[in-house]
Design a protein that fits this description.
The chain has helices at 7-13, 44-54, 108-118, 172-186, 200-208, and strands at 20-23, 26-29, 37-39, 59-64, 74-86, 100-103, 133-138, 141-152, 155-163, 190-196, 212-224. It has 225 residues and is of the alpha+beta class. Strand 1 and strand 2 form a beta hairpin. It starts with 6 loop residues before the first helix and ends with a strand.
Length: 225
């Protein structure tokens, strides 16, 4: 199996096992870190283990190879086609026009506020612990950010790329992603990311930075009933 196949499961059983909660062949990140969950494979026994892990009315976000199929005991909440993109290019995109700051625990409330507004994906009060997070401020307010999320051998995911709607079109996302990617490459790793298949604007930005689609899949948020 390639490191980027069943990537949530692989992250939770290798480089990010310290964030994992487990039941059988089901894993999830600690809820305050992120809602992402993984299964060894998609069989009824593992879904039952996931249900025990997250509890009644609990939710989990899965990356799947195929569209989610209805299952007894589960309610489908939301989902969409998903692209997994990888950047093998060694080209470094420099942008010195913006002051980029590192974000951490003290910035968690404003990071959550920005992600709630822009909805780049699950983001919790401890998501920043998964890796480096960088931001750009305007008049003291955090208006754009990007960081690292899933980590598997040889690869780190660029995630939480978001810009306040009032500040779109300034090149903030590209500048922040380039800075995050430089850090990943300096560790000898390859950047990758996930993006909704219908988010054509974001896909174009990522392609400009050298990302290419590796695989097509789906994400699904499901609730235990």
């Amino acid at each position: 199996m390639h490191s980027l196949d069943n990537v949530i499961w692989q992250a939770l059983t290798t480089k990010q096992v310290q964030f994992a909660e487990a039941r059988g062949q089901a894993r999830r990140f600690m809820p305050e870190v992120t809602a992402l969950t993984g299964l060894g494979d998609e069989n009824p026994q593992n879904f039952a283990s996931l249900g025990e892990l997250i509890g009644p009315h609990g939710t989990g976000a899965l990356f799947l190879d195929h569209p989610y199929e209805d299952r007894d005991g589960w309610e489908y909440v939301v989902g969409a086609p998903l692209l997994q993109m990888v950047c093998d290019s060694r080209t470094v995109h420099q942008n010195t026009n913006f002051e980029i700051v590192e974000l951490g625990l003290q910035n968690s409330p404003e990071m959550i506020e920005l992600t709630m507004l822009t909805k780049p994906g699950p983001f919790g009060p401890r998501t920043h612990e998964l890796g480096t997070y960088l931001g750009i401020r305007c008049d003291g307010k955090l208006v754009a950010m990007a960081g690292e999320r899933l980590k598997v051998p040889g690869y780190t995911e660029v995630s939480a790329v978001c810009t306040h709607p009032d500040h779109l079109g300034n090149g903030y996302a590209q500048a922040l992603m380039s800075a995050v990617m430089r850090g990943i490459r300096e560790r000898g790793e390859t950047p990758f990311l996930h993006v909704r298949g219908d988010n054509t604007r974001a896909v174009k930005v990522y392609e400009k930075l050298g990302f290419k689609t590796r695989k097509r899949g789906y994400f699904a948020v499901i609730r235990k009933v």
